[in-house]
Specification:
A hairpin with a 5-residue loop joins strand 9 and strand 10. The longest helix is centred in the C-terminal third of the chain and has 14 residues. The protein has 345 residues and is of the alpha+beta class. Among the domains are: 181 residues, Alpha-Beta Plaits, CATH 3.30.70.920; 45 residues, Arc Repressor Mutant, subunit A (Orthogonal Bundle). The protein has ten helices and eleven strands. Helix 2 packs across helix 3 and helix 7 packs across helix 8.
Length: 345
């Protein structure tokens, strides 16, 4: 799942078609001209670690007054430099069919313009312009394979400027770590369990927190109609299960990860795709891993500080792993992202 830095909403974004899974959109583009201070960066890092950390604790860790911290968090959110929301396995919140799609465009077309057109599709939660085998990558989250197939056959293949596509349906979303600093030192897994199923109340809690990750539990209890203590217990269980995280989403470049790429792996005959996925997920910089059908077996998103950092990851770590027969790297440029919310039953 993918990324925000100094976020700049484009004028055309107001016309985006909304659906339950795609209610909010941001252009996650670096270099918009916004300035953030050293204390802002540290604040973002703390909110990446825990989006619900109290203002009192934030103030203590930053050496600032609580009033100052409250004001700055509000300003960062208003400027869309951060969005405090939920990150969850799509299958856990009702989306059984997810795919990454690599798109090559017609010569002379503008990559970002086409990416924005693709992003108007309800099921596209992530799009990025790229350099490498593809011009654009998009992630689709759908209720089922029929919805995915209809979208691919109709809107995407028929879109002006799209020359050809490669489809990578997810067999498993193997690993996700949206707190970018935690991708550097792995202290335990963020591997999703495909067996987690959320009931109606759980989904309503996730829906509230996806709209505002810092929404008070009392407000959630009033919205859903159960006690605050039950909300707290359910939220703690969701965290413990790894079904959901609440944190500040931000462009990795805002906190120093300026080289972002997708690494596409083919697993050697006789090797276990899951075992290779486990090895890759343990490496520093790896933030997202999908085990896929299609041309590649594994698609991994990596967050690196600079091109040298990426080269070292590829040359000294990934290419030396057993069980990998080929590696392709796709560099990322401009991001479009929006949160997904649970399907309404």
């Amino acid at each position: 799942m993918p990324p925000l830095r100094c976020v700049s909403m484009r004028s055309g974004m107001s016309a985006i078609k909304r659906s339950p899974q795609t209610r909010h959109a941001s252009l996650l583009r670096a270099g918009s001209g916004c300035e953030i201070s050293t204390s802002d960066i540290e604040l973002i890092r703390l909110l990446q670690a825990d989006g619900r950390i109290s203002f009192v604790d934030l103030a203590e860790k930053l050496g600032l007054t609580e009033k100052t911290v409250r004001r700055r968090v509000g300003e960062l959110r208003a400027l869309e430099l951060i969005e405090i929301t939920t990150v969850a396995s799509p299958r856990a919140i009702g989306y059984s069919s997810v795919a990454l799609v690599g798109i090559r465009i017609v010569g002379g077309s503008n990559r970002l313009d086409i990416a924005e057109q693709l992003f108007e599709l309800n099921a596209v939660d992530y799009a990025v312009t790229t350099f490498g085998a593809y011009d654009i990558l998009v992630e689709l989250v759908c209720r089922d394979n029929r919805e995915l197939g209809d979208l691919l056959d109709g809107a995407i293949r028929g879109m002006d400027g799209v020359r050809e596509i490669d489809i990578f349906p997810y067999l498993s979303l193997h690993y996700q770590q949206p707190a970018w600093d935690r991708t550097q030192v792995k202290e335990g897994g963020s591997r999703f369990s495909s067996n987690i199923v959320l009931d109606k109340v759980d989904r309503e809690i996730v829906r509230c927190l996806s709209q505002d990750g810092r929404m008070p539990f009392l407000e959630i209890s009033r919205h859903i109609g159960i006690s605050e203590s039950q909300i707290r217990k359910r939220y703690a269980r969701l965290l413990e299960q790894g079904a959901v995280q609440v944190l500040a989403m931000t462009n990795p470049r805002s906190i120093g990860y300026r080289t972002i790429a997708w690494v596409c792996l083919t697993v050697a005959s006789g090797a276990s795709i899951t075992a290779v996925g486990d090895q890759v997920s343990a490496l520093p910089s790896v933030a997202y891993i999908a085990l896929c059908a299609g041309k590649f077996d594994i698609m991994a998103e990596v967050m690196c500080r600079d091109p040298d950092d990426l080269f070292e990851l590829l040359d000294k770590r990934i290419k030396s792993l057993p069980g990998i027969s080929s590696v392709q790297t796709i560099l990322c440029e401009d991001f479009l992202y929006r949160r997904i919310t649970p399907i309404e039953e």
